[in-house]
Design goal:
- The complex is a heterodimer of chains A (111) and B (112).
- By secondary structure, chain A is mostly beta strands.
- Chain A is 0% helix and 51% strand.
- Chain A is globular, with a radius of gyration of 13 Å.
- The mean pLDDT of chain A is 95.
- Chain B is an all-beta fold.
- The model of chain B has no long low-confidence stretch (mean pLDDT 93).
- Classes of the chains: A mainly beta (111), B mainly beta (112).
- The interface between A and B is medium-sized, with 25 and 20 residues.
C-alpha cells in the first residue's frame, strides 16, 4: 500500500506570498493532520480534519488554513508568508483514534 | 496539554539493549502514552503506545510505572537503523482531536 504522499517536496517562496501544500492520505484513512517542524524542534500541531470537518486547531495565526476534500486528501494554505514560516510541513493520516502515519514532508523556505 | 520530560540524548552500542526514559508526572486518567521516532530526513514513525499495562510489539517494548508517572521505551537490540529522535507523547483519548504534542525528544546515537 502507498504511504502518505505530500507535494511538493521542496518549495521556495518570498515574504508576503502565499503557498498551498497538498497531502494524500493512506487509502481508507479519513483523518488528516498537519504539523510544522522548525529545525531542531519537534513537530507542532496545526490542524486535524476528519470526514471533511475541522476537529482541532493548534496555536497558529489565521494566516494558516486547511481543508479536506471528499476523497480525504487535504490542502494546507499559508498566506502572507513570513521568514519564520520556513519549516518542514508534515501531513499525517490515520483511521479515527489510531496511530498516525506521517508523510515525508514539504520543506518550505521563505526568503 | 500534559507534558513529558526526556533526556536530550543517549548513546548505545549496536546489539545492546536501550532503555529510553520518559517522565510524565501530570498524566491524567484518559492519557495514553505514545512513542514515535523520527529518522533523519523522514517524518515521524509510530513505535508503540499503552495505557497502564506493559506492551510489546515487533519494534519495541513499553514499560509503564505502576503510578503511570513515568515510562520506558525498550529497544531489545539496537541496530544502526535505530538511530533517531524518540518522542514520548501523551495523547488524551477523551478529547475530540488526535493531536500529538511533541516535545524535543531524545536523540539516540548507536555506535557500531
Amino acid at each position: 500500500d502507498a504511504g502518505v504522499t505530500q507535494s511538493p517536496t521542496h518549495l521556495i517562496k518570498t515574504r508576503g506570498q502565499h503557498v498551498t501544500l497538498r497531502c494524500s492520505p493512506i487509502s481508507g484513512h479519513k483523518s488528516v493532520s498537519w504539523y510544522q517542524q522548525v529545525l531542531g524542534q519537534g513537530p507542532q500541531f496545526i490542524f486535524q480534519y476528519y470526514e471533511k470537518e475541522e476537529r482541532g486547531r493548534g496555536n497558529f495565526p489565521d494566516r494558516f488554513s486547511a481543508r479536506q476534500f471528499p476523497n480525504y486528501s487535504s490542502e494546507l494554505n499559508v498566506n502572507a508568508l513570513l521568514l519564520g514560516d520556513s519549516a518542514l510541513y508534515l501531513c499525517a493520516s490515520s483511521r479515527d483514534r489510531y496511530e498516525q502515519y506521517f508523510g515525508p514532508g514539504t520543506r518550505l523556505t521563505v526568503t | 496539554d500534559a507534558k513529558t520530560t526526556q533526556p536530550n540524548s543517549m548513546e548505545s552500542n549496536e546489539e545492546e539493549p536501550v532503555h529510553l526514559p520518559c517522565n510524565h508526572s501530570t498524566i491524567s486518567g484518559t492519557d495514553y502514552i505514545h512513542w514515535y521516532r523520527q529518522l533523519p530526513s523522514q517524518g515521524p514513525e509510530y513505535v508503540i503506545h499503552g495505557l497502564t499495562s506493559n506492551v510489546n510489539n515487533r519494534m519495541a517494548s513499553l514499560a509503564i510505572a505502576e503510578d503511570r508517572k513515568s515510562s520506558t521505551l525498550i529497544l531489545h537490540r539496537a541496530t544502526l537503523r535505530d538511530a533517531a529522535v524518540y518522542y514520548c507523547i501523551l495523547r488524551d483519548e477523551g478529547g475530540n482531536t488526535d493531536k500529538l504534542i511533541f516535545g524535543t525528544g531524545t536523540r539516540l546515537q548507536v555506535f557500531p
